[in-house]
Amino acid sequence: MSVLSNLTILTLEQATTLPFLTQRLAREGVRVIRLEPPGRGDPNRYVGRDVLEEPGMASYFFANNCGKQAITLNLADPEGRAILHELIARLPVDIFATNQRPSHYQKLGIDYATIKTIRPSIIWLGITGFGPDCDEAAYDPVLQARAGWMELTGEPDGPPLVFGLPMVDLGAAEHAYGALMKALYRRATMGEGSRVDISMYHSALTWMAGPIMLTALGERVTRRGNTHQFFAPVSVYPTRDGYVYIAVGNDRQWTAITQLPGFEGLASPEYHRNAGRIADVERLNQRMSDCTRAMMSDDLITALNRIGVPVARVNTLSDVLSEPLARDSLLRVRDDQTATELVLAPVAEVDGGGSETLSFPPRLGEHNEIVYGEALGYGAERLSALRAKGLI
Questions:
Q1: pLDDT band at 328 (very low <50, low <70, confident <90, very high)
Q2: Domains defined along the chain, listed by start
């Protein structure tokens, strides 16, 4: 059993960053109850392929919502807010989390001051685009652009590009996870609740430690395609059957490469030191490509592994699913209603800290009867009346 399995988090979540965090908590045994407005619920329920052929369960919703319970509640209505506050008081709730814009906090009755009055020991988490004092709307690519990430992504002579994953969303979730662990430790040792505010923009800036420092020192840092600013050869190179990524990090590794069959012609005196290779990186990469494209990927990878040079095949996502190191760490989740099986990527865990089984992503309002019945004693008649009023 996980050390977190006695915790409950009530979460008003949307998009990616908070759902990604709360699914990680669900994998570690936390009871995660996601709040959604009645009717259509989370907009992400309608994004992607309609795998199950039922409304509100499109494929994009699946990845970050396994292992959770889902209830509906209309927080725009005063009675809905009163029900929320009663839930927080009686479940009990250890953590309340939201990634609504700050201007919505008081309107929805989810601001820290209100919730702390109900449960003083609660840990309140708010993830926003730019911090609690800024109400600007923000999506991951907007933050990538503003934090300078796009300036570092793409070819030198091409336009700035967005990163292939929503790394600002995911990074903010990881920062929020760490902050929650500190808040839980504080409560365990001092008996105090906490307010935790995570700015996605500031989270993105923390990953820019190197570029920001170098720029402040007067060194220009910009996009370099697949190459590295300080080491060469480092790039993606063609082979007879695909591409590999090779990263030469020191002169010893380079010397070893020039002793491989087919690479002897690269043993030029001007390339003996890394500075010389960096100075001629464009021509060097072309010469490297001439050597690598004569070999099969597996043969090249075997040769480079043998001499201690970091290398990897540039895998397709299908390749990743079939690779043993990945395949053995994947988690499978099955829907009892449709027999649909989902494959989930692993998360970082301490030994014995993860949940072995997860439930399928919940249908909209799937756990209304369970949660409202357990916490508030609502029976079928009361729930029916709430539905009729548009409250759940």
A1: confident
A2: 8-207+329-388 (3.40.50.10540), 234-315 (3.30.1540.10)
